[in-house]
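Chain A, query sequence.
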Amino acid sequence: MRIAINAIFLQKDRLEGYGHYVKEVFSRMVTQHPEHEFIFVYDRPHNEEFNFGTNITSIIVPPAARHPLAFKYWYDVKAPLALRSLKPDVWVQPYGFCSLSTHIPQVLLVHDLAFLHYPQFIPWYHRIYYKRFTRKFLNKAKNIVTVSAFTKADIIQQYAMPDKKISIVHGAAGKWFHPVPWQVKEDCKDGFSDGREYFLFTGGIHPRKNLLNLLKAFSLFKKWQKSNMKLLVAGRLAWQYDDIVEKLKTYKYRDDVVLLGYLPDEQLARITASAYALVYPSYFEGFGLPIVEAMQSEVPVITSNTSSMPEIGGDAALYADPQDPDAIAKHMLNLYRDESLRSGLIEAGKQQAAKFSWDTAAQQLWQIISDTAKK
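Chain A, predicted structure.
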């Protein structure tokens, strides 16, 4: 079998959600199925670290697909033309878009429908593209994969897709997310938080991630507790971040907030495992990977009671309305004051995180790809 994979988000030091999913799943799949050929389709030069096996053929198909006009041209013209001579049996589209012109059977991965629920958080031209073409993408794909039961139900409700066309293949945390010894925690705190305990937020600085309400909650926590704890933010400046950056200039506790930027996997894992707690009050997530990463690292989690996050966190997290900084702050305070609560969440989190496995995800997606190629 010859499998084409849209690999345009496999970018060194910029993987984030989409890229991590593709890397983790297909690095396993390529190794587990050496008798099959994989075609990685890029839109720009790629890093050699993504050549997971000798059964990969990598092709570069310009121009870079990073805005709606380029999306349309790349997916419907350039990429299908490039694949015509290679004759793949199936084409995996992991980023919510697919080709409307190709005759190759496609597997479409949809992480979420955030553009419908929070349209104000994406550029208008992307919003128009999503709204115009998402239904067509869903209809065109032979099979649809989502990362949570929440997203599957959302697709069915919004687009009336048949249940049997949609499969759930959860993500998971990387193997580098694990508990670390006391000395590693101390070294991490010395290096990033002046030796103090810290709350951690992981994710791009973007309005949907709700950092403004997190800052308000952190202010309340500091006011109530008079603690010297810090707040570390690990993630790149993504989009519409100017408001956050400006607010921090006059923020009362600005000296206790540290913007770390994008971090390599191993460094992020150490910082996660050394945190007092993860606070992840995002408005909307299709999966919420930082929740599992923290739990696997034996770090308690405070997150939102919306979208997929209760599904992913199960009974092992504290939940708050992301619109309510007071509720978020109260959870931060309770964790700080109640060590038995914190210990219980850590233990429950270990069990919850164990439910998510990249090996399982790779096996499940392989079966869907095989079924699609036979249709």
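Residues 230 and 256 are 5 Å apart (CA to CA). DSSP finds 14 helices and 13 strands in the chain.
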